[in-house]
Structure formats: structure tokens, C-alpha cells
């Protein structure tokens, strides 16, 4: 979480977000979702960039959508909120790629 929310080094934020998406597990995406819920809009942009980097490098878009959908029912509000935001990013990325 500290790496994702490191305002002093956005490159670390971006790389950590990318690594978590590549991990492809519910736990990894839950950590990412918590960070998104806590991040400022500006910092969330760096997290989003990391997510897009992972997708551009071949991370499974549909797997990430499924994980976000599953986290929509998580007990923690921050995870639900962050997962919804990530899902929006992924859907937007998919729309841009298929144009």
C-alpha cells in the first residue's frame, strides 16, 4: 500500500500498480482497489497509468474485469469503491483499444 500511495515517487506507484495487475489475483487487485479509494485524483492517475501499462503489455483484461466484479461485493467499502473505479478504467481502455 505504501508503494502505491508514495507521493514522492510516482514511478514506484506506476510500477507497483502494473505488477499487481500482472499478479492477477483477487488479493492483488484488492490492494490496488484500496489504494485507488485512498488516492488523490492526481495520484490515482498514476495508478491508472500502471493499470493501463499492464493491459498494454498483455495482462488479461477480462480476468481483471472479473476480479473487479467479484470485489464489488467485498465487505470493505474502500475495496468496493476502488474496484468500481478500476473497472471503469479497464472498460475505457477496452473501448479505446477496439476502436
What is the fold's blueprint, element by element?
Layout: H1 10-23, H2 26-38, H3 41-56, H4 61-71, H5 77-97
Helix pairs in contact: 1-2, 1-3, 2-5, 3-5, 4-5
Q: What does the model show?
A:
The chain has 99 residues and is an all-alpha fold. The protein has one domain. Helices cover 76% and strands 0% of the residues. The protein is built from 5 helices and no strands. The chain has helices at 10-23, 26-38, 41-56, 61-71, 77-97. α1 (10-23) packs across α3 (41-56). The longest helix has 21 residues, at 77-97. It is globular and about 35 Å long. The chain starts with 9 loop residues before the first helix and ends with a helix.
Question: What is the number of helical segments per DSSP (H or I, 4+ residues)?
Answer: 5
Mean pLDDT: 93
Structural class: mainly alpha
**Which parts are unreliable, with pLDDT below 50 for 5 consecutive residues or more?**
none
Count of domain modules: 1
Please count the beta strands (DSSP E, at least 2 residues each).
0
Radius of gyration: 12 Å
Helix percentage: over 70%
Shape call: globular
Strand content: under 5%
What is the rounded distance between the termini? 34 Å
What characterizes the major β-sheet? none
Order of helices and strands: HHHHH
Key descriptive features of the protein:
single chain, 99 residues, mainly alpha, globular
Write a brief caption for the model.
The protein is mostly helical. It is built from five helices and no strands.
Amino acid at each position: 500500500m505504501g508503494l502505491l500511495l508514495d507521493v514522492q515517487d510516482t514511478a514506484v506507484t506506476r510500477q507497483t500498480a502494473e505488477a499487481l495487475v500482472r499478479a492477477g489475483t483477487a488479493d492483488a487487485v484488492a490492494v490496488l482497489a484500496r489504494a485507488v479509494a485512498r488516492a488523490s485524483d492526481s495520484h490515482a492517475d498514476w495508478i491508472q497509468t500502471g493499470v493501463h501499462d499492464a493491459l498494454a503489455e498483455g495482462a488479461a483484461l477480462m480476468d481483471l474485469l472479473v476480479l473487479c466484479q467479484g470485489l464489488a461485493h467485498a465487505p470493505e467499502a474502500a475495496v468496493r469503491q476502488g474496484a468500481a473505479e478500476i473497472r471503469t478504467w479497464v472498460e475505457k481502455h477496452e473501448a479505446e483499444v477496439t476502436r
